[in-house]
Every structure is written in C-alpha cells, then in structure tokens.
Amino acid sequence: MTASIEIAHQPRVEDAVGRSLAAYKRYETHDLDIAEVEIRRFMAPGRLRACPGDRDGVDARAFYADTGSVGVGRMSYGAEVTVDRPAGSRYLGVAIPLSGHLRLWRGREAVDARAGKSLVVIAPQGRIVTEWSADCDALMLRVTTSALARAARVLTGAHEPDSPPRFVHQVLTLEQGHAVYSAARLLAEVFGRYDDVTAVPNGVLHQLSEHALSAVLLGLEHDLSRPTRPPYRAAPSDVVRSAMRMVEDETAAEFNVNELARRLGVTARALQLGFRRALDRTPREYIRQIRLERAHRELLAADATDGTTVTEIATRWGFFHTGRFATAYRAVYGVTPSVSLKGGTEEERPPRVV
C-alpha cells in the first residue's frame, strides 16, 4: 500500500525562473531512449520508463547551463515517466518542480514534491526512483561530489582529499530547503542574462559556483553537519588583515569567504571568528561594504551615454540581484544607483557603514 505524504504550502516559483534558461537547450525529443542518452551527458546515468499508454505522448526537453562544478537546468518529459538512477553518482542533485509534481519512492512509501511547495534532494549515494507527472517541469541544481569535497574541507578544516559529505534522498519544503532553492533560482536568473555560458565573466561563474556549494553544505543535512572536531579558534589578526587587503585589492568580485579562507590556510569558521574579534563584523559584511564602495565609485565615474548600465557594474562587483543592490545602495548613499550613474540629480548623503 502506498502512503502519500503532503508537504506544507509554500509560494510558487515564478515562471520567469524557468524561462530564463531558454537559450540553453540540450535536447527536445519524443524518444525516451534519446533523452536517456542525452541526460547522461550532463546529469547522471539512469533508466527512463514511460507509464503504460504514455510513451506516445513523450515530449522530453532539457535546458542546462553549467560552471563545471555546479549546473542549473530545466527538465520535463510531457508524459508520466519513472526515472531509476543507480547508486554511485558523481553528482548531488536538487529537483524543484515548477509545475506538476515529482514522487520519490522509499520502499513502499511515496513522498510527493509539488510545484511551489517542496523540492527533492537526490543524493550521490544510493539508488533512487522518482516518478514525474506528465505536467511536471522541474528546475534542477546539480553539484559535483569533487567540488563538494573541496568546499567541505574549507568549511570544516578537514584534510581528507576525497571525502565528500554524505547526503540522503529526501523531500523538503521550500522553507526547509530555502538556501538551495534560492541558489538555484539565482543561477538560473544570472545565466538567463547571457546567451551562452562562455559569455559569463569568469569571476561571476566562480562566485555563483561557490555560493551554490555553500548553500548545499550549509542548507542541507549531511554527515558533516554536526562536526566532532574541537572548537574553532579565531584566525589571528595578521590573517584578518591579509584577508582585508585581498578584498580591497580586487578589481572585480573575485573572493568569497571560503576562497579567502582557503588562500590564507584557515577554515571559514576561523576567519569569521577572527573578523568578529577584530572588526565586530563578519567577513561577508566586510566584503559587501567594500564592493558597494567600489560600485559607487564606478557609477559616479561612468558615462551613461556610452551604454554603461547599473546591472553591468552591479554584476561585476558580485551583486547579482539588481533590485536588492538598489535597496542596499540607497540605504548607504541616499540615492538610487541610476541617479549616481546619471551624474547625481539628487543630493547624496555621506555614506554610512553597513
């Protein structure tokens, strides 16, 4: 007997998120065998089977963009299908239904992930069987286990070279999986501004990848979520000063907290404690302040008549959500970024520290 577990209501994912990946089509086919072969190229091996009587209705489509370690895409089949993925994948996946529903089987129990309510975590370890409804269109986040292992070493200070954290297959509400849900949306939205991955600036690709890896490691349960290591010690003041110089010397957004920690030979947690002790703020807050200052200078120096845009400058300095950038900018400088770009038609107040 099958037990279906309903997930609490959450807001729907905007249709615009799905449309943003339209330029990254990988395939469109009515043949499940072709879809199965194509999926191996960017996701993971698995068997596709259409439900009885549904094979003639297959309309499989996939759109996918990837940074190497992290990728985001959209997938649909146009028919009720079962995806049977064997154990031993090199990827962790997160499937977020934009329409319809996905059903995750755990023995004889089925858990439904429905559009606007929940998501499915597809762990690298262990076989997983999922059923896609005919109207299911899902946003997919894919992260390599090798990248997770590297990012986990930075976060935990571990030294094992090939020990990625272990996750479990599960369905989470969008609230429970908010970090990875937001990271997947951000990836899709930023990639959607470009016609091809090669057009995305390398610094942007790096920032997006590191953000997604951190979201997975900090936002999902795994065997490293509760470390047994001794309490962290704060990074010494000279390490904090070195981190500050690295951020201040950037010519565009380059480092995040994990990357700074790795370059300086400390854990991300130690660096965070060091900043708290020395500056009474987190490294992330310091990075945000410096980059907001850099963006402010560029906006004032830019010539709007030559085609320079607020989005271009904001993206270069790691602010991928232009609306949030404008809000943060106005809170500090008293005007919107567009006013500064046009030469300042409103009075700017002295900047305040954020």
UniProtKB/TrEMBL annotation:
Transmembrane regions listed in the UniProt entry: none
InterPro entries recorded: AraC-bd_2, AraC_XylS_family_regulators, Homeodomain-like_sf, HTH_AraC
Keywords linked to the UniProt accession: DNA-binding, Transcription, Transcription regulation
Gene3D superfamilies named in the record: Homeodomain-like
Name recorded for this polypeptide: AraC-like DNA-binding protein
A Pfam family it matches: HTH_18
Record-level Gene Ontology MF annotations: DNA-binding transcription factor activity; sequence-specific DNA binding
Domain HTH araC/xylS-type per the UniProt entry, residue ranges: 241-343
Presence of the UniProt keyword DNA-binding in the record: yes
